[in-house]
Write a structure and sequence with these properties.
Layout: E1 8-12, E2 19-24, E3 42-48, H1 52-64, E4 69-75, H2 84-96, E5 104-109, H3 111-123, E6 130-134, H4 137-143, E7 148-153, E8 156-163, E9 169-172, H5 181-198, H6 200-214, H7 218-238, H8 253-263, H9 270-287, H10 293-305, H11 317-324, E10 337-342, E11 345-349, H12 354-362
Parallel strand pairs: 2-9, 3-4, 3-5, 5-6
Antiparallel strand pairs: 1-2, 7-8, 10-11
């Protein structure tokens, strides 16, 4: 049972803004982990219509038992709501609830809620404290850690946002029991990414234990989340604002974001688009002679086992290029791509010959997922 899984703690080292990432079962009811990080005894929980019936009242009761005043904002669910309209809904509620600059916002949900809540905290009264309680695997291993907050623009994903670090992250592994299988697989895409870009030993472990993760084995899940968070924490500590090595975390994302915006947000889950994007990037690495075809085969095999797409939708080469030109990683008019030199070793380049890109993008076609 997950309740027997030990607590893991990873620290994101950012000097006076350092914060812990606690990983373990039933953490959202352990208010003693939360209360020391509150500036005032008042919080506003930002969640959605799917998560609220499952976990809102348990979190509320835990906090109220410590004499914390709790208000809540319940938003519609889905990537299509990660926009200005929903952000303004948060602000309207915060003002009507008399939230102050030192009122802590708590994001209870997946990556969309974490991004919306974090961005709202970053700009509400020029900065309010916030806490992440991610309830999806993808959020627990990626979006809740590192301080990237944003909303989408019709022409590009996460184009409007801010770097704003949380005070605390609670990755409650028990919430994964209610996660749909498709969402679990989407989270595994980001887990696999860490092995591909910087941890070959972890990739080897994933090849051995992927079936355990799909079966939601608590020990395997806890280990995978902890290793993923440690990998990300190390990168964030050395490059908080993505001026260097943090760009490696975007492996597969330039292609993946094009898929999401090209199809319409929410048609493919973020992890599904990233999975297909990682295959595109790996295939480009093969075309450029950086890696062997064996690496591509291992990548595809593991993603397929994780029940993830390995081909992007057929948008057309021109459409892909147009969408990628709006990516926030474009620098001096050049698209930056993350490629592989080996499993566990990534690199950044702003030059892939057009013939290689055309070949990679031309090989795409809708993959079942």
């Amino acid at each position: 049972m997950i309740s027997s899984t030990p607590l893991h703690t990873v620290t994101v080292e950012l000097a006076e803004r350092s914060y812990p990432v606690h990983i373990g079962p039933n953490l959202l009811t352990q208010a003693a982990l939360i209360v020391p990080h509150l500036v005032r005894p008042k919080v506003v929980i930002v969640t959605n219509t799917v998560i609220a019936p499952l976990y809102l009242e348990a979190l509320r009761a835990a906090l109220e038992s410590h004499q914390i005043q709790v208000d809540a904002i319940i938003l519609p669910d889905g990537e299509s709501h990660k926009d200005w309209t929903t952000l303004n809904t948060i602000f309207d509620s915060l003002v009507s609830q008399h939230a102050e600059r030192k009122t802590t916002l708590i994001a209870l949900g997946g990556g969309v809620i974490g991004d919306l809540c974090g961005f709202a905290a970053a700009i509400f009264q020029r900065g309010a404290p916030f806490i992440q309680i991610p309830t999806t695997l993808l959020a627990q291993v990626d979006s809740a850690v590192g301080g990237k907050t944003a909303i989408n623009h019709p022409l590009g994903k996460n184009m409007i946002g801010a770097f704003y670090q949380p005070k605390l992250v609670l990755a409650d592994t028990a919430t994964l029991n209610t996660l749909p299988d498709r969402e679990l697989s989407a989270g595994l895409a980001e887990v696999i990414k860490y092995g591909l870009i910087g941890d070959a030993q972890f990739f080897d472990w994933l090849e051995l234990h992927l079936d355990d993760l799909l079966a939601r084995d608590p020990t395997a899940l806890s280990h995978a989340i902890a290793v993923s968070c440690r990998n990300k924490a190390q990168v964030v500590a050395s490059d908080e604002r993505e001026e260097g090595v943090r760009a490696h975390l975007n492996f597969g994302h330039t292609f993946g974001h094009a898929i999401e915006s090209g199809l319409g947000y929410g048609q493919w889950l973020h992890g599904e688009a990233v999975a297909a994007g990682m295959v595109m990037a790996t295939r480009a690495s093969v075309h450029l002679g950086l890696i062997s075809g064996d690496v591509l085969e291992r990548c595809i095999a593991l993603l397929r086992r994780a029940r993830l797409p390995v081909l992007g939708p057929h948008l057309g080469v021109d459409r892909y290029m147009a969408l990628m030109s709006h990516d926030k990683k474009v620098d001096a008019g050049k698209i930056r791509f993350i490629l592989l030199r080996a499993i566990g070793e990534a690199m950044v380049t702003d030059h892939i010959p057009s013939s290689v890109l055309a070949s990679v993008l031309g090989e795409e076609g809708v993959d079942a997922h």
